[in-house]
Specification:
The chain is built from eleven helices and seven strands. It has 295 residues and is α/β, with parallel strands linked by helices. A seven-stranded parallel sheet has the order 3-2-1-4-5-6-7, with helices on both faces. α1 links the parallel β1 and β2.
Amino acid sequence: MKTCLITGTTNGIGLATARSLAEAGLNVVMATRNLPQASLVGDRLKKTTGNNNVSIISCDLSSLDSVWLCAQTFLETHDRLDLLINNAGMMTGNRELSTEGIELTFATNYLGPYLLTRLLMGTLKQSNDGRIVNVTSNIHKMVRNLPLEDLTGGNRYGGMLAYARSKLANVMSTFSLASLLAGTSVTANCLHPGIVASNLLPENTPLLRFAGKLVRRVMWNAERGSQTSIHLALSEELKGVSGKYFGANTREAVPSALARDHKAQQELWRFSERLLSNHSGFAWETDLYRTETSR
């Protein structure tokens, strides 16, 4: 039985994705910070899908310590991982910081999933069809440059821009992973789920909430928005396919030129490694870009 770890499953696209994976007979592990809600969701999934292999692990993606503990708990309780879906995302109207002092949107949407992927890579490589699926967004195309030092600090802040930057980082990181994993059994792809009605818009920005209500009538529901995630997770046609960006119609799409910039990808990767080392003392045994820089 294949095992999947998926973040952000208590509502929206993540819940719809988890339901489909449970229906497909996978062992579904939900990583979430809202344990009481996740417990209710897990029980409901077991009853409605007939799959009792649904479990929960605590994980607050904005906290590096929580992500580390989540990965450690998973590795202690599971002997395999075939599918990692980094689905969770958030946006805030006001500039907030994580427990490590990192801008909250960047920490939650990018750095936390980056660390989780990093920590579980060894187990993924043991699968003969390991897949990393990152849920991103077409909004990454609005970003014209990615000022790395400003991602975690800076005096100017815009909620939508911070969100777009985090999604660009997700896309760039996916392509980096695909390059670094070439020749292994693990693939990495990312996707735009479509314009989906969700609870993403922050409560502390009434204008955005109001705008969201106005356009909900033309938004997709979570089930439709989850189709590309499910396709990337389960399609036999995509076995061995890596380093691609898919649109909401499950077809391959074209990301921004900046997202495809190899030098920018390397800079983001090294910046991420420094962040983890500086904030939490994480030390890695190898430089993942060693083969790239030695060319």
